[in-house]
Design brief:
Blueprint: E1 8-13, H1 16-24, E2 33-36, E3 44-47, H2 49-52, H3 62-68, E4 73-75, H4 79-93, E5 100-104, E6 107-111, H5 122-137, E7 141-146, H6 149-156, E8 164-166, H7 172-177, H8 189-197, H9 203-207, H10 211-218, H11 222-228, E9 245-256, H12 259-280, E10 283-293, E11 298-304, H13 312-324, E12 333-344, H14 348-353
Parallel strand pairs: 2-4, 7-8
Antiparallel strand pairs: 1-6, 1-7, 2-3, 5-6, 9-12, 10-11, 10-12
Length: 356
């Protein structure tokens, strides 16, 4: 016998950062709001729904956002507050399931197949979770309910904000067929352009593509695209989902051209990254440096070691050597970033030497 379908809920907070700011400062309510810095080199971290109506989006340069919405109000981010609210929300999740897979501070997958709260229906479970989030935090959430993660995530966007949507067993392929390809989880801007060039505009168009054609154009991702076009996603909800990297980056108010200043900034970023690694006891073998020039062209340099990067000096030296490898600079530098990835556990002997 086939096993019963899973019951998966995807919870997505509505304009989370901006909603927290509007909750805490009544003067911001109803106004187009951007969380971020309105300076010339600022970037929008999040936008309220009032701002989104003008086309303001996260990751948009502040200058572009202000051109689209001259009355836009900026407020600096308060990440410690957002993390505290996120912890409140996860405490609510835990009353309904032990299988919680966070995707970010403001969204998560929940597997409620076991029905820990004894509610009986996943749609009612989602409704109760959303009601408790509103009651305890004053914030709204949207939910998608389905039998796999992909469909649940797509469904949570259907009735935003403050709504929910069900894709029941047997309805997945028909639901996906109607979606524009740009809405698909896992289809970024580059892939979307490539698909549209091939005449793939919707889920139905994707479904008509033979696997061989998808393999020719999309390589390893072909199997994923072939499956989701049919509403198929076998990935389980993983409550122990491990973080795969840690990084820090900064955008400068004026372009940097002095190499000594650039190397000092890289050292500072490497210090921040290693401080997180040390606190989390998560150490990686690969360091990546990102450089974005004044004309927005971006380059990366990466190096992997045979063993983990276990001290701050090693990370700093590696990161600085990588940035030096791009000299001479082709233009001024507007952004620098350092990331550590390929996490591994410390060797047992090294762990034993750590202070307790």
């Amino acid at each position: 016998m086939e096993s019963a379908p899973r019951k998966i809920i995807h919870i997505d907070m509505d304009a989370f950062f901006a909603s927290v700011e509007q909750r805490d400062d009544p003067s911001l309510r109803g106004k187009p709001l951007a969380v971020g810095h309105g300076a010339r080199r600022g970037v929008v971290a999040a936008a309220s729904y009032e701002a989104r109506r003008f086309g303001v989006r996260s990751a948009m340069p502040s200058t572009t956002a202000l051109r689209k919405c001259p009355q836009l109000v900026f407020t600096p981010p308060r990440f410690e507050v957002y993390k505290a609210v996120s912890r409140q929300i996860h405490e609510i999740f835990a009353d309904y399931t032990d299988l919680i897979e966070p995707l970010s501070l403001d969204e998560a997958y929940l597997d409620v197949t076991a029905d820990k709260a004894g509610i009986g229906r996943a749609t009612e479970t989602a409704r109760q979770i959303r009601a408790r989030i509103l009651q305890q935090t004053g914030l709204t959430a949207s939910a998608g309910v389905s039998y796999n993660k992909f469909l649940a995530k797509m469904a949570s966007d259907q009735n935003k904000p403050n709504g929910q949507f069900l894709v029941a067993p047997g309805q997945g392929q028909a639901f996906v067929a109607t979606l524009p390809i740009g809405r698909f989880y896992g289809v970024g801007e580059v892939t979307e352009r490539k698909m549209k060039a091939l005449g793939i505009e919707t889920g139905a168009d994707l479904h008509r593509q033979p696997l061989e054609v998808l393999l020719q154009h999309f390589g390893n991702a072909a199997g994923w695209f072939h499956g989701i076009a049919r509403g198929i996603d076998e990935r389980p909800v993983k409550p122990d989902r491990e973080r795969k990297s840690s990084g820090s980056e900064t955008t400068f108010e004026t372009d940097l051209s002095d190499t000594a200043r650039i190397e000092a900034e890289i050292a500072a970023l490497a210090g921040k990254v290693f401080a997180w690694c040390d606190k989390a006891q998560a150490f990686g073998r690969t360091v990546t440096v990102k450089i974005k020039y004044a004309d927005f062209e971006q380059v990366t340099r990466r190096r992997s070691l045979p063993a983990i990067i276990g001290d701050a000096d090693t990370l700093r030296h590696l990161a600085q050597a990588l940035v030096v490898s791009v000299y001479p600079l082709r233009a001024g530098v507007r952004l620098l970033g350092v990331t550590v990835s390929n996490f591994e556990a410390r060797p047992a002997a090294e762990q034993a030497a750590l202070p307790v």
